Each structure stands twice: as C-alpha cells, then as structure tokens.
Amino acid sequence: MGKFSYNKANRDNAVKVTVFEILPKGAYVCKIMKAQEVENKSGNGSHIEIGFDIAEGEYKDFYNKQFKANTSEDRKWPADARYCINVPNDSSPEWLVQQWDTFWTNVEDSNEGYVFDGEGNKLKGKLFGGLFCNEQSEYNGKIYDHTRLKWTRPAQDIRDNKYGKLPNDKLITAASSPVKEDDSGFMNLPEGDDEEIPF
Questions:
Q1: What confidence tens digit (pLDDT) does each residue in 106-132 have?
Q2: Residue 180 belongs to a domain
Q3: What share of the chain is helix, strand, coil (3-state, %, to 5)?
Q4: Which of 95, 173, 193, 197 could connect to 188 by a Cys-Cys bridge, CB 3.0–4.6 Å?
C-alpha cells in the first residue's frame, strides 16, 4: 500500500484526549473544596458555586484523582463536581428559599458545631450528603454521560443508608429537548496544595 503521507509535527503537537471514569449513580458523603458567589448571567441575582469531591468510601477523592490524571495544560476541576444554589431575595419563590435553607441545614447537620454565617472561607472541608443521578447532555451533536449531584442530605443519613430514593435519571431521548453541555469548569488545584483553589 505504500507509505502514508502525514505531517509528523501535527501529530506531535496534538492534544491528547483523556477518557475519565464516570462516578456511579448513588449516595455519597461529599466535602466542599471551595465556594464562591457569582452573578447570574441574566443579571437577576447571584448564586453560590460549590466545588466538591467525594469524602468517604470506595470513591473517596474521585474528582481529585481525575484532576491529577488530566495532563492537559489548561486542566480544570471536573464540571460534574459542581453544585450551584441560587441566593434568594425578597421576590424569590418559596421553593427557592427552601432549597437554599435545605442545603445549609444539611451542611450544618453534617458538621458538628458548624453554623452557616455566610463566610465562604469557612466552608472548605465541610461535609454534606449528596444524591446523584445519571444525566446526559449534547454538545456539537454528541451525547455525553454524566453523574450529577441533584439533592443533598445530612452526611450521617448517607452513612446510615436512610436517605430515601435516588433522584430520577435525566437522559436524552428522541422526544426530549437536549441540554447543551456546560463547558465551564473549575480551574482548581486539588486540596492539599499550598495555593488557594481558584474557580
């Protein structure tokens, strides 16, 4: 067949794509890596972005291991390891206020003596329980599988297997309207490094 024609420099300079394991659907004790308040793109308020990892069990440090295994120069903290909570205001619906209160109550219940006071720098390392479902997203015509944190619980409920049912999966079907893949992630350093973890 003869010798193939190719540009070796292009291959040498190509970005290598790493395929990462997906966290199995389930219930996990999680820890907060960092939290920060961010303005909503719509300009109608703000939300708290929380970067987290798995704190206990077989999948402990799951996302930190992925981060360390990523050899690309612009490596980011996995986008699946993010949980966003809208900050309520005077005009917020009741469900949003309940969501806000439920999350911080679960964090308080998971960390003896801790009371949420709005100070983000006190949150690193705090535990909470998380219920994860399978989810799919579409980007550039391809479907991607994820495991997403959907609901939170006190960490002890996860350890005691008293958290109720897991959330329903959100999979793309022919009749569904695909969710575009969110290309934002955390440009973080893993816990234990001297630098503060940036988003």
A1: 999 999 999 999 888 899 999 999 999
A2: no
A3: 20, 30, 50
A4: 197
